[in-house]
Amino acid sequence: MCYQYLNFGMRAICLGSLKDELPINFPSPFVVLLPASNKIECLDAVGFIATFLDMGCIEFCCVGAEAEFLHDEIDSIIEDRRAFEVVTTYDLDDVEGCEYFLFAAGGGTKNLLALVSDHPNLLNGLQSMIAS
């Protein structure tokens, strides 16, 4: 799937998946929403964390059954890189995780990257919240 771009008030949301090539010119600072439905998916996501940090990510929002595991893995990378200003959050509940991502993540940072296209529950949740 190609990236889909949506406007949400003053915020720009880019929707894609972990399988898509990363948007190289994505404007920073930004916040990323990562699905965490199982440990394999989490480990796939971990492979992108250093790149996201280099691109200017200021917050990682992890959502799903293994969100706490992914959160802890990301925290280890942040600590190793001494990027202590970067925030990580996790939520096991899809709706609460999507709400936080849209309404609070990054303290209102303009650019949001949601890698949830392979997760209809998260994708539909975000799209419904944006539409209402």
Summarize the entry for a quick read.
The chain has 132 residues and is α/β, with parallel strands linked by helices. The protein is 39% helix and 24% strand.
What does this structure look like?
This protein is an alpha/beta fold. It has one domain. It has helices spanning 39-46, 49-55, 67-81, 94-103, 120-131; strands at 4-8, 11-15, 30-35, 57-63, 87-91, 111-114. It has a 6-stranded mixed β-sheet with strand order 1-2-6-3-4-5, with helices on both faces. Strand 4, helix 3 and strand 5 form a beta-alpha-beta unit. Helix 1 packs parallel to helix 3 and helix 4 (94-103) crosses helix 5 (120-131). It starts with a strand and ends with a helix. The mean pLDDT is 93.
Q: Poorly predicted ranges (pLDDT <50, ≥5 residues)?
A: none
Q: What does the main sheet amount to?
A: 6 strands, mixed
The whole-number mean of residue pLDDT values reads 93
Shape: globular
- Our count of helices gives 5
Strand coverage percent = 15-25%
Count the domains. 1
CA gyration radius, whole angstroms = 13 Å
Structural class: alpha/beta
Strand count: 6
- Along the chain, the helix and strand elements come as EEEHHEHEHEH
Estimated helix fraction: 25-40%
Strand order of the largest sheet: 1-2-6-3-4-5
First-last Cα distance: 25 Å
